[in-house]
Amino acid sequence: MRIEQLEYLTAVTQHGSLRRASEKLHLSQPALSEALTKLERELRVTLLDRRRSGAQISREGRELLPYMSDVLAAVERLRNAAGDRRTDARVIRIGTVHAATSTLLIPAVRAFQERHPGTTVEVLTLQQAAIDDGVADGTLDLGLVNVLDGDATPVGLDGIDLLHGRPVAVLPAGHGLTARPQVTIEELRQERFVMMRPGYVMHRYVHRAFGPEVPPAAHSTDGAEMGKALVAEGVGVTVLPDYAVIGDPLHRVGMIEARPIAGDQTYLTLQLRQRTSLQQPLPVRELQAALTARATQYRAAGASSSAAS
């Protein structure tokens, strides 16, 4: 029995079919099937139901899965314990949709690297689905994503809430709507709009909030950072989570303004995603702690500002 055989069966369970598991594992379907067939022979149990429509995990396989998960978790703990004792540098890969980059991610990475100067933090800008897939298959250590109320965390992942906020209209300095304490959906509908591309939560929010009459897109882009830059240059207006705007350098110097959206009751959450039941290496745990600590500081600063006003 080989460890990768157990990992293969877990992948079939996670992705729902032999075909999808082979794609995620970057392994040919015949090779994957053969590896699992050998495991079935060794255990003397049928692990997969093979049909014309495809192969899925069998009832017997599901019953054995918790034991396999325990073995894989123990192996992961062993690897990580060995990794914690290595003195060589490593790379931590974190995927982000680029919300709260300057207010949360960058300060956390700076604090982390003061403690781990030999560790490289690789930040990848990705859409949420790609982040979740990367965390699930281990190509990413951590992920930062926005979620709307009611969004479920994918099976196999844990979500740690870092920041809670509301959607705000993001306006360039001097725009007529900055004179208002809040703006309406109808007012935004009349503006040239910077739209997040499909695959981002804010794209889904805009279609939910505006209904069938979505404002004409002056530009579409990936991520909040480019959206704010386009707004600052007067290309259009956009809608982002307040924690992606308040305290951002463009906001601090007055190049963009944020206004609440009248009557909108939507809540957004910035979540840190990681694999369930995975004992992360020490540097990854410390980066997670730095992100959590920075989120606490940001919330405290926001509460102090609200109290002062």
From TrEMBL:
Pfam families documented for this protein: HTH_1, LysR_substrate
Keyword Transcription carried by entry: yes
Alphabetical keyword list: DNA-binding, Transcription, Transcription regulation
Transit peptide as UniProt keyword: no
InterPro entries (UniProt xref): LysR_HTH_N, LysR_subst-bd
Residue stretches making up the HTH lysR-type domain: 1-58
Top-level taxon of the source organism: Bacteria
UniProt similarity note: Belongs to the LysR transcriptional regulatory family.
Protein name per Swiss-Prot or TrEMBL: LysR family transcriptional regulator
